[in-house]
Amino acid sequence: MARPLRRLSPSSIRTYERCPQMYHLRYNERIRVPSTAAQLLGSAVHTVIEMFYKEKRDGKALDVEAAFDVLDDALDATLHELDEEGRAEIEELRELGYDLVEYYLDEVAPHVRPHLIEERFSFNVPGVDVPMVGYVDLVDQDGTVIDHKTAASPFPADYLAHDIQLLTYSLGYNALRLGARQRPGQLPLASMLPPVRLDVIVKGEEITYQRLEFRYEQEHLEQYVERVNAVAAGIRTADFRPFWQIREPDPDVCHYCDFNSVCTYRLPASPDEPLEGGESESATP
Ligand code: SF4
User: Fold this and answer.
1) Are residues 221 and 130 both part of a single domain?
2) Last residue of a domain, one of 94, 111, 128
3) Are residues 230 and 125 in the same domain?
4) Mean pLDDT for all residues in the chain
5) Shared domain check, 232 and 181
6) How far does the centroid of ligand 1 lie from the alpha carbon of residue 108, in Å?
7) What pLDDT score does 262 carry?
8) Same domain, 218 and 121
9) 180 and 119 housed in the same domain
10) Which residues does a 6 A CB cutoff place in the pocket of ligand 1?
11) Is 281's pLDDT higher than 50?
């Protein structure tokens, strides 16, 4: 069943671009798949960082022990989502979570002066008649829009040139700054956009920190408008084909897809495994 399109978000755009069928399962069928222990840990660390900056902005200090308590509470609140194996995995990851939090508070947080935290935005993209909505993770007092992630390995150096999430956050923060002065359906010039930064805590053998910074140019905004319009048109026309009917089949996309256990279009992991949905079958309802 295709549901009416009421809004877009960086997450819905990225999901559709990765695989329209993935979008269909997540946003139309609303299939819920349990999070992995690693995803829950990343989300718990995110909660600690958010809490830390809210306290810092309000002139209070969240020391490392209090930060560990926040992490524990966030992890404990997710245990009911997991089976026995997942709960055991969380217990193994908890120590890593303490290390990540401690490292972040020591190495990254002192260089951030929080201005806005988890602020909701909404704006319109030219040619699209539903709003783009989301939350800006963090804006520094110097106006830089910051996102933070935990990852198993560093991100590619050119990641921000293609990432739709931080460009949307930058546009979202710009819309917040302009308020009622924002012209409906018009994007600003790229030169007006705040710079962006991605802080990645890399969980390798040793914990390390990667910082990527970027300023947008006009071509990035033009590509953004094209991409968002293409996704909105695909959803409106109920084009939910699996990605391998549109572009180069890559079994890794299915391997890492949250829905691979329920999707009948999942690509086989090896050439010998038969296709479940049939290669010529269309997923378009
Ligand atoms: S398993 Fe593969 S085809 Fe199915 S939704 Fe995921 S990425 Fe798309």
Assistant:
1) yes
2) 111
3) yes
4) 88
5) yes
6) 36
7) 93
8) yes
9) yes
10) 19, 21-22, 25, 242-243, 253-254, 257, 259-260, 263, 265-267
11) no
Could you tell me the CATH number of the domain that includes residue 228? 3.90.320.10
Distances (CA, A) of 95 to 3, 79, 151, 231: 42, 16, 16, 40
Kindly tell me if the per-residue pLDDT of 89 is higher than 90.
no
Atom of ligand 1 nearest to the CA of 277: 3
18 and 91 part of one domain: no
Q: Are residues 21 and 79 in the same domain?
A: no
Segments forming the whole domain that contains residue 123: 114-236
Residue 187 shares a structural domain with residue 223: yes
Q: How many domains does the chain have?
A: 3
pLDDT band at 159 (very low <50, low <70, confident <90, very high): very high
Place of tokens 């401690």: 102
